[in-house]
Amino acid sequence: MNYYLLSLIKTAIVVGIFMHVLAYLQWIERKVIAHVQLRVGPRRVGPHGLLQPLADVIKLITKEDILPSHVNKVFYFMAPFIAVTFALISISIIPFGPEITVGGVRTNMGLTDLNIGVLFILGISGLGVYGVALAGWASNNKYALMGGLRSSAQMISYELPMALALASPLLILNTLSLREIANGQAGYYLGFIPRWAIFQMPFPQIFSFILFLIAGFAETNRVPFDLPEAENELVAGFHVEYASMKFASFFMAEYANMVTVSCIATLLFLGGWHPIFPEKYGSGLIPVVIFAASGLLCFFHAANPARPFDRITLPMFGVLFLGAAGLFLLPPVQFILLPLFWFCAKVLIILFVFIWVRATLPRFRYDQLMRFAWTFMFPVALVNLFITALLVAVYP
Amino acid sequence: MPLGPLPAAVPPSWYLTLSAILFALGVLGFLLRRNIITVFMSIELMLNAVNLSFVTFSYVLKRADGHIFSFFVMVVAAAEAAVGLAIILTVFKNRQTLEIDEVSSLKN
Amino acid sequence: MDALLFMIFAAIAVICGINLVVQTHPISSALSLVGVMGALAALYLLLGGEFIAAAQLVVYAGAIMVLFVFVIMLLNAGTEKKLAIRPWGKYLGAPLLLLFFGMMAYVVQRILPESSPVVFGAFQGGTAAEIGRSLFTVYLLPFEVTSVLILIAILGAIVLARKEVD
Fold first, then answer.
1. Staple partner for A218: which of A60, A96, A225, A371, CB 3.0–4.6 Å?
2. Among the residues of C47-137, which ranges form H helices?
3. How many contacts, defined by CB atoms under 8 Å, are there between A and C?
4. What mean pLDDT do residues A55-84 have?
């Protein structure tokens, strides 16, 4: 098939799904935080609030777009564009699964693969800071400027431990291409321990994984490192002067960065799309069991409804889940869905950790944030890299 | 240089010419501008232009040495930026100005 | 395709370079410089320098220029004063500059032999593996010396920027 046509189709699929994921991530976040805090979260729009993202999008698009009179207009308009562009570019090099053949066409799952994939991700995430810094500066507002300054200092500081944490698994896996990194983690020790980077010999990369996640929290400006937009000190930080779609762009950029960090963590440390135990012990049945159990649970709750409305909605979800379970048993689509399931499951678990931490931890103070980066993260990442390098050299 | 429809690929000399143009722009900024930070950025532009010619020569000679040179240039530029911006900060703290002509106590 | 890509990115680089010199506000100049660096990274890719292109993005655009923007924001630097150009500079400057361009371009076109045009993928020596091998074998001493240089730069920056304590 024509290379350009194929790329176009793949781009359309990935972008379409990615945009929906971003919209629903916010729904998931609100639901999870609500349940952590013993509330129920959004449930007015659609069954269980499932149409809430749609309502939010309509609200954000139709809101009045305010242009404050004191801003620097060029940079004020440029900043959200920069933020969202660099947040979305990274998804283009992330592989979601192995090479597949659909209808006689061999193609990789994922848009493209670069020889310098990891470096590219680091470069792009470094460029993302311009959006935040420019927004803070162009708004011509004390709070916004403080937010912009804090964010640029924070991102420069945490980029170092992040890069060092990324470097250690690269020493073991010996490549910079994300696809080869994931492929290098296939297989099992003793037949059942996965060769993921966090378990891989000679030095399990569990410390790098934790360091990377912490630095990832800081790079995406999430709680407990959300100082650039600390509501109770800086009102909303760098995006205080933004309204409507421009505000939504920053919002989208934050969620897209979160998804990217989760994908990178999955690919580099959790073995990408490789299942947690071998196929021969029935790892292919895990998604079937999970979806079928969810479906049956829905039917059970529909039989004893807590609210009258549930009598109608829950059976619908039950049928959907059972249908998904059935799909995983069909051989023609199984080979696409299984890697995708493992990849998405790992990404969702890390995203859940992001949300969980947000619901649990308080915010750092600014000096604590900087001291933590330079006096704890940086030395620990260096020592970790050093030990890894030593062991890789001694036990090749 | 043949003029006419655009060829499928350009010779390396075009890259070198681009590098020369960028270098000249850097010199221009260095001589014309009066803000210390902008003067500093003009120097960075010159370094970048030189890097482009290093990489081009690397392509012409089919050796990776040019890449290594430009890598070292980047490292030196990073060190230079750290020290230079620290100096600029100190100058601004003491004199509340960034105009390069006003920092001239050593003159006369 | 190669020529078209070269034209696009060369145009971006030159326009951003001119913008750097012309703009009066330092933050506009800084962003133009980021534009130049991005365009140059693309040109490095065309020339087969994958690693250098990535390093350009990570080190130059992602770290050094963020530091510049940070300092500009911190000092809240305003627009530059209009500078008074001497009359001979006003009338002689532009022709001299054009002459300089022309001379450099002529020398480059003249001295460089008619070599094969730049085709993407023709040179494969710029991968991270190749660069790493050269860095740690042939260029080991310069590489180690550079690390000392960076250490000195860090110390210098800290000494210069710290508050007076006495």
1. A225
2. 50-55, 65-75, 87-111, 128-136
3. 75
4. 83
